[in-house]
User: Fold these one by one.
Assistant:
Number 1:
Amino acid sequence: MRFVILFLFVFSAVNAQESLPFFEEVKEVQQRVSQNWNNAEETIVFTGSSSIRLWEDLQDRFPDKQILNTGFGGSQSSDLELYMDELILDYSPNKVFIYEGDNDISSKRRPKAIIGTFVNILEYLQEKRPGMEIVLISAKPSISRWHLKRKYLRLNKKLKKLAATLPHVHFVDVWTIMLNKRKLKRNLFIEDGLHMNTKGYDLWYAVLKEYVNNSNNQL
């Protein structure tokens, strides 16, 4: 009888886990990343939604660093909250770059609620790996979501304020560099008007390289 109860408990736990959103995609990310990860080297993780997942030449841009891209497309901050071990902590990184919030706003989540999720994420990461540098990448502007720009700006303001209150947490603005004064640089995007082309990632690289290349005590 005890064996049956234990079996049912394990079965239901596994079943519940597999029913989580992005379960299969996260498993595929783990399999891909683990093939290239050298646990004897310092590791930097980039994670978040499709703007990270589609950054295919990320490692090539930083050839002297070990960069793991664990982005999973379509994700929101609440999805990352479910997989912080699998996508970040399992690789014992000294730095993690997080891009979430873009899809949250598009899904009509309020900036205040998104920040609440970020607080949970940051508290967990800092509890499990004290001293790890955490870089929050601002939400980016885009052609397809330009009508939501005020909400994105509110979110970015709150993210910047949150980062300023915590040790080892930094905020990087990628919104401003993608504008020409107040107008969006439309040549930074592929046909869907949401995701970036190489020109867009060139701009991201320009502002993020300082945080990638500097040692933790210089950030």
Number 2:
Amino acid sequence: MDAKVLIESFAEFARSKNVDRPTMIRILEDVFRAMIRKKFETDENFDVTINADQGDLEIFRIREIVDDNSEDIWDLDKISFTEARKIEPDFEIGEEVYEKIELQAFGRRAVQMARQTLIQRIKDLEKDLLYNKYEELVGEIVSAEVYQILGREILLMDGEGNELILPKAEQISKDRFRKGDTVKAIVHRVDMSNGNPKIILSRTSPVFLERLFENEVPEVYDGLITIIKIVREPGERAKVAVESYDDRIDPVGACVGMKGSRIHAVVRELQNENIDVINYTENLDLYVTRALSPAKVSSITANEETKRLSVFLKPDQVSLAIGKGGYNIKLASRLVGYEIDVFRELNEYEEEDVDLMEFVDEIDGWIIDELKKTGLDTAKSVLSLTKEDLTRRTELEDETVDEIFRILGQEFDQ
């Protein structure tokens, strides 16, 4: 293979990978200089000129002519007077010899190796460019097409044919994709695996919800409304605390939109995830009350040392505060940064009830804590549930639930 064919084939391959001309020339020169170093030990006294457009390559070896008896005659950048005269008869000592080195002088094997090295360098460059591109897009929404569905992940292709990965753990539980579907997600992170960039997407990250709000709510995109915090149970429920620095703008109303027009687009993208938009405030009691909406809170007691809140509600509000699957109270706790314990306000009839703490000698403290987390703070409140309801709310073992019912039931049987 001559230089022209080698350079032209490389240039064509590089252009197909969108490599710019200066980078192409730099790679060519690096590879040819590596060939020179392998054959001549050094490339310091070599001049390499490349014209990638025309496929031209010129390599000149530059050496100074010294006397045949000179001590410097063995230096790599020196040539004896006798050897120089064989190249050009009228050379004189002290002059420089420019000797053209043809590509064939390096040998067929070296040229083949150079070709493979050039292709590999472009592929490595392509990987670096891909890594850098998506590293800058971390936290941003991208759209890609599903091309393969595997057990633990979905493989997608972006518009340039790059492979993106949406792991099962980063998918909303209700997501159902087919080959050819267009998927929106954020770039979660970019890893390097065996020298190859691995681009991980996410649809469960709170950042994904934040970016969707930016797309649908101009005031959020423009910075007139700030999203203070987002907590999610992907596909089920989310709570978004927002604040406006302009008194003329209602942050909740702006995010929801006329007749819910803005938030509906977000909800659809998140597989009908229930989204509560809350007006942020530094008043803790008011913030907690808003976070536990739609339940109506009667009173709140805070313990700053343990970062726990005791929230008291009327009996008919307890289930609203807890929410389906306990999502409402879990998300409210994460949003305000306190562990929330829900208690029912007792009426006169219920004063005959017995606080669960009275059974601490018979029921382990951690079990009582689990019950209280779901708003069950008295014996009757527990006994009012079926075994299935209590198991679902607390995720306690069946045997444990049976024992709780036995102990509490004995109290009232007596």
Number 3:
Amino acid sequence: MSSVWSDPVGLPIGDSGAVITVGTFDGVHRGHHDVLARLAALAAETDRPSVVVTFEPHPLEVVRPSAAPPLLTLHDEKLEMFAQSGVSYVAVLPFTPTLASYEAEQFVDAVLRERFRVAELLVGHDHGFGRGRLGDIDVLQALGASRGFGVTVLPPVHAPDGQAISSTAIRTAILEGDLRAAAAGLGRPYSIAGTVIRGDQRGRLLGYPTLNLQPPSTRKLLPPDGVYAVRVQTPQGPFSGMLNLGPRPTFGDASRRIETHVFDAAHDWYGAPIRIDLMARIRDTRSFDGIEALRAQLARDESAARETLQGLATATTSGPLS
């Protein structure tokens, strides 16, 4: 399990230095996992600690807020992924206007060398750093040669369709409701985490009680409104279910909600933390002519969700996601 340090000066790094990677790591996707695995392996080979240096908030929120993308992983979600990666430490740097103003050489000297004693640096092929991201791979390799630390540039990891995996491509897939493509890039289903809150009990009246999720940060990327087949991770274990994301036009409710009906379970989860893994999109949100029409549609949604989840489980046990 990784240790998280918000004050990286306190990292217990010895005289031999550390093996480091630097980045935003939004999504902690398959490409990121390749970097993290190589980081941990090189650290073990050289008997040095491995350190992930990341930032909070996303740098674009400071440098160019209008261009800041919605996030695949909020801060706590990202740290959870790092904790499973096998690296020694995660150092979270507050991304401030001062840090944004550092030239590439200043960032290398003041941050990577002085604070983290970098001995080996691993970066992706498209890595950029320093003010305006002007510190490209060539600049970084030149600085490594002059400062005495190694620089390893890692090639991209490709999705089954041959495209390089990136946070941008995964965001596009989620916005298009293509959860299969998103999962192929992430190496896991896309998820929404939060706390169960009390709703208005309409689901119970319909025969489909729901868990209402406290809306996550507005910075979290959500897929299009609609009904989804999901797996729900709860304190009592995982359950299958179906989720309605969006308004409830049949009741004249235009607010965007996250409501999940859990199959074959009847626990009281109010106040509990849960994670909803979005497995497949079932249909769009639409209005129905009364309660009975809605109830009949919910029955069809349940059948479709159960069938979809069973198919996905069979595909998982028979071979890799492609």
